[in-house]
Amino acid sequence: MRCAVVSRAGQVIANGRLVLHQNQAGELQLNLETDGGRLIEGGLVAADGDLTGASQVLFRGFFDTWGMSDLTLTVTGR
After folding, report:
1. Which of 17, 32, 34, 43 could form a disulfide with 38 if both were Cys (CB 3.0 to 4.6 A apart)?
2. Are 16 and 1 in contact (CB under 8 A)?
3. What is the pLDDT of residues 48-74, one digit of tens each?
């Protein structure tokens, strides 16, 4: 899924795509691959498909990467 990471001021910080990667244990991890080649790892998807925990870890990765809070992930296409 194509998306943009947007600051609270409306500036696009990065464009990329959300992807699910499967680890060797068969668990799915929510990640963001930016168009600039950066991989930001999120958390594991819950067994029931809930993305809450996975997205919280992903947003902590955003802060670690760009040093900003209050970023928004906006879907821009497929």
Report:
1. 34
2. no
3. 999 999 999 999 999 999 999 899 999
User: Within 13 A of 76's CA, how many CA atoms are on the CB side?
Assistant: 13
Instruction: Return phi, psi of residue 54, to 5°.
Output: -60, -40
61 token code pair: 């990765």
**15 vs 10: CA distance, rounded Å:** 13
Q: How far apart are CA 53 and CA 47, in angstroms?
A: 11
Please check whether residue 30 is in contact with residue 18, taking contact to mean a CB–CB distance below 8 angstroms. Answer: yes
- What digits encode the pLDDT tens for the residues 16-57? 999 999 999 999 999 999 999 999 999 999 999 999 999 999
